[in-house]
Structures are given as structure tokens and as C-alpha cells.
Write a structure and sequence with these properties.
Number of strands: 12
CATH class: Alpha Beta
Strand order of the largest sheet: 4-11-10-9-8-7-6-5
Order of helices and strands: HHHHEEEEHEHEHEHHHHHEHEHEHEHE
CATH architecture: Alpha-Beta Barrel
Strand content: 5-15%
CATH superfamily: Aldolase class I
CATH topology: TIM Barrel
Helix content: 25-40%
Radius of gyration: 21 Å
Number of domains: 1
Number of helices: 16
Oligomer: single chain
């Protein structure tokens, strides 16, 4: 979802000062006095939906860091369409079905999940909270759902596996260096990952203009003057003070190497292969023996070709609008893919990623044939606000909203969500 190979790199500079900033915000630079350092239930009461969590993240993060998560390619039309497309369908409830209790559980690749919502891969989660990937994985495991580790994680895939959280999936690309593709695949198998997610829509990096405008750097560096003007962001700066100098792309670091973060970012970018085609997908299918999903599918012909090749699951996605601006929304692409695949492969998991901001959005996707949904940005917002607790709160928001929507629709289980509960919205 969040690719970071193209970013510039600077290491942080923390001046040794005791800075007296606006007294309404910060009396002096000590963690105990900074707003947000000692989290309480106040943030949770305020973050009663994903939009409110996003707003709290916006206020708590430096603008370049927030925009790295929140932004997309060029005019960001596809980002906006991902979210607005859900409004093209309206519910047609059947409240007399006796849905006093609702069952949100499902079985995916032999593993029982508590709800049809997974955390998708997001690069550099460790930029938003120390050990961010580990925090999100723990929250997902506690909620009874899947965490998919990004190829561009700060931690190594082995470090996440050491937590023994489950289920855990791993994202992978097909690289120019085929040996490296095989290496990551074999490492994921050795570490006990349950599924592999091949992302296919990033063979060229999208034009993320917010990052260009902000001069986004990894990790960010701030001057003393900038620090004085960012009192609300000082809690983030404090908790990240030790993590920022150690920030790296854990899965790309060679043992014993002292390669800089800039070199790593450059190497990652050079590894992307614009020549990606079906022969490469077939080679990965032959090497990886567990469930293999393709992420970045929008065209029904490619969906059907993937399944005939032996792919175990599809993720309908446009990379959160971060790659090709002007691509259709995931929600709009979903029905044609379901129609193409399900008659021949009725049990094949079809997941959707992109723009799911409400439990009602998820309910509409499930009614159109999706098996489950993935979120990326919302879990980063929760992570930025309160770490593991924030991610757990975001997952609970979705669970609660989906449960309520099913009750009002008259659906007692996920199987009872279908197109009969939807109509085209006026206009």
C-alpha cells in the first residue's frame, strides 16, 4: 500500500536544548509534560470513528510524515474515488429476519478469523510508532485477524515471526534480482508465514506529489526553529528519538552490512521490474507452497487468468491510489471480478483493499461478493495516536460498525450479506 523506495534520506538532528515553547502546549521539553505522551481514555472517546482517528493523527504527526501515509499519486482522484465509490450503492434492509445476534467470523485458508477485516501491508510502519509493525501485529492477533507485513518494514520478517502472532502474512514483489525474490520467499517459508501476498501494481513508482512538495525524507530532520513551531508534534518526536536514527528497511539489510538508508532506498527502487509478467507469477507459484494471493488486480481478465494459474486468492486493489491516478476504485472493480471468477471458482477468496473507512463500506463490499476487506491508512492513523492500543481501537471501530450494520440489515451471518441488500443509489 505504502511504497517508500523513492524517498530521500536524512538522519535526524536533535539539538541539545531545553526549549520553552508556547506555554499553552509545552512548559519545557520533558516527556511528562507533553500532551499525548501519557495516553488516557480521552483520545479513545474523541476517536469514535476512523475520520476522527485520522484527524488526531494529523495533529500529532509532522506534516511530511502524515502526508506520507495520507497522500496518493498526482491529483489524488483515485484516492478520493476509493472512498466515494461506496456511495454509489444504497442499502435495502430486511429488518424482519430476526438478526438478534450476528456472527462476523469466517475461515480463510484454514484459519478462523473473528471478522472479515485484515491489516494490509504498509511500508515503514515503524516511522509512526517505535516498533510499529510489531505493535500492529499484536493488535491484529488480539483482535483475531490477519496482519500482513510489508516488504518495506522497519523490522525483519524474522523479528515479527518471533512474536508468534498469528495469522501472519508476508508481502513480496518480483524483483529484477530473481535470487532476491527467491531469498525472501524462502525466508518467509522458514519463518512460518501463513500466506504470501504478491503485489503486482508497483512495477513503476507512482508520482506522489505531496511527498515531493514536502521534501519528504526518511527519517525526517528538523531544525531548532522548526521544533519551536511544532509543539503538538513533540510527543511523537520524543518517543521516536531513539527509533529514528535506527530506522531502516529490515528485510533488505545484508548481515554485517553498514549500508546507509539512502543506499537501501536506492537499491529497493532499482529492484522493481517493469517487465513483470505471468511467467514470473508462475515461477513464484511453483516455489511457494502455501496460499499465494495477488494484490493489485482490477481487471476481470487478469483475475481469471491468475486463478487458472493456481493463485489461491485475489486482492482487488489500486494501491490506495498511490500508483496510477485515474484508476477505477476497488469497489467499482469488484463486481466484474466476482462475476468472472465465482462461477468456476465459487470458493476462491476475493478480498478488497482501498477506501474502506466505515463498517458500512465493508458491509457493501461483502454484499457484492468480497470475502473480506483490508485496511492500510486507518491502522497507521491508530498507530500514530496510541501504538498498539490505537490499532486495536481502530479494529474495534470496524467490528462494532459492521455488527451494527448487519443487525439493521437483518443479516445474521456474513453469508446472508448479498446483492439483494443493495440498490443503485440515486445520482
Amino acid at each position: 500500500m505504502l511504497s517508500i523506495a523513492h524517498a530521500a534520506v536524512h538522519f535526524p538532528c536533535f539539538p541539545r536544548v531545553r526549549c520553552r515553547v508556547n506555554a499553552r502546549h509545552v512548559r519545557e521539553c520533558t516527556p511528562s509534560s507533553w500532551p499525548g505522551v501519557r495516553l488516557s481514555s480521552a483520545w479513545a472517546r474523541d476517536a469514535y470513528n476512523v475520520a476522527r482517528m485520522r484527524e488526531r493523527a494529523r495533529r500529532s504527526l509532522p506534516r511530511p510524515v502524515f502526508d506520507f501515509a495520507d497522500g496518493a499519486a498526482e491529483t489524488e482522484w483515485t484516492l478520493r474515488r476509493n472512498e466515494s465509490a461506496f456511495a454509489t450503492k444504497a442499502f435495502l434492509p430486511r429488518p424482519l429476519q430476526g438478526a438478534a445476534t450476528r456472527d462476523l467470523t469466517l475461515t480463510l485458508f484454514g484459519q478462523r478469523l473473528s471478522m472479515p477485516l485484515l491489516i494490509g501491508p504498509t511500508g515503514l510502519a515503524g516511522l509512526f510508532w517505535p516498533d510499529g509493525e510489531l505493535a500492529s501485529a499484536r493488535a491484529a492477533a488480539s483482535a483475531g485477524t490477519v496482519y500482513c507485513l510489508s516488504h518495506g518494514s522497519v523490522c525483519t520478517l524474522e523479528a515479527l515471526a518471533a512474536l508468534s502472532t498469528a495469522p501472519r502474512w508476508m508481502q513480496i514483489f518480483v524483483y529484477r534480482d530473481r535470487a532476491f525474490t527467491r531469498e525472501l520467499t524462502d525466508r518467509a517459508a522458514a519463518a512460518g508465514y501463513h500466506a504470501l501476498v504478491l503485489t503486482v501494481d508497483n512495477q513503476l513508482l507512482g508520482n506522489r506529489e505531496r511527498d515531493t512538495r514536502n521534501g519528504f525524507a526518511i527519517p525526517p530532520r528538523f531544525t531548532p526553529r522548526q521544533l519551536v513551531g511544532m509543539a503538538p508534534q513533540l510527543p511523537w518526536l520524543w518517543r521516536m528519538r531513539a527509533a529514528l536514527p535506527r530506522l531502516t528497511f529490515g528485510n533488505y539489510v545484508h548481515e554485517g552490512s553498514k549500508e546507509s538508508l539512502a543506499s537501501l532506498a536506492g537499491r529497493m527502487s532499482s529492484l522493481l521490474d517493469p517487465g513483470l509478467d505471468w511467467t514470473h507469477v508462475r515461477a513464484l507459484r511453483e516455489r511457494w507452497r502455501g496460499p499465494l494471493l495477488l494484490k493489485g488486480i482490477l481487471h476481470p481478465d487478469e483475475a481469471l487468468a491468475a486463478v487458472r494459474l493456481g493463485i489461491d486468492g485475489l486482492i482487488v486493489s489500486n494501491h490506495g491510489g498511490r500508483q496510477l491516478d485515474g484508476a477505477c476504485s476497488s469497489f467499482e472493480a469488484l463486481p466484474a471480478i466476482v462475476r468472472a471468477v465465482r462461477p468456476t471458482f465459487p470458493d476462491l477468496p476475493i478480498l478488497i483493499d482501498g477506501g474502506i473507512r466505515r463498517g458500512t463500506d465493508l458491509a457493501k463490499a461483502l454484499a457484492l461478493g468480497a470475502t473480506a476487506g483490508l485496511i492500510g491508512r486507518p491502522q497507521l492513523f491508530g498507530l500514530a495516536v496510541a501504538g498498539e492500543e490505537g490499532v486495536a481501537h481502530v479494529l474495534e471501530i470496524y467490528r462494532r460498525e459492521l455488527d451494527k450494520a448487519m443487525g439493521l440489515l437483518g443479516a445474521r451471518s456474513l453469508a446472508e450479506l448479498g446483492p439483494h441488500l443493495l440498490v443503485d443509489a440515486p445520482g
